[in-house]
Specification:
By secondary structure, the chain is an alpha+beta fold. It is 45% helix and 32% strand. The chain is elongated, with a radius of gyration of 33 Å.
Amino acid sequence: MRLLLFWQVLITFTASGVTATALTYKLTPNEKACFFSYVEQKGAKVAFYFAVQAGGSFDVDYSVVGPNDKIIMDGSKERQGDFVFTANEPGEYRFCFNNEMSTFADKMVDFEIAVENEQRAQLPSKQGTSPEQTSALEESILKLSGQLSTINRNQKYFRTRENRNFSTVRSTERRIFNFSCIESLMMVTMAGLQVFIVRFFFQGARKGRICMKLHL
């Protein structure tokens, strides 16, 4: 019975009013892209997370605009951000990324928008279950939800670090390869120049000997 009640509570919390959108978008140079989320109720919690996975200096301009074009938050040249704010007005909220500062570098932006109502769902009542048991299970579910959120944020953080480090490694490999090619080309050029200079000296000495013999 206790296990059955646990699953009922878990399903109730899972089916509560939470909407989330997680996307990865390629932002081209001089592009401004906006994404929209509609908040139905006043007082809903809105979570906004983004991270630049690749491109340029791993930074981007962002802004969050609420109904009536009210700017809620903005920033410039940020690598990542994790914000939670309360929607004071129902309506359409706009989340924008701006790459107009870049003229040639694409930016790969990973972001997530989640809207959660503050009202807690009503737990199902079971015959023979005391309120203390229901409250204990409810606290366990809330603690489990918080731990899952922490794990999810840590996964996002390590994924961002992995992508940035991988991009740095690829950039370093490309630079080493280019430097090696330039160094090899310079060595071949210097060797050819040395051969040309030595031949020039020998040809000049040979011409000098021939002139001395003719004078004699």
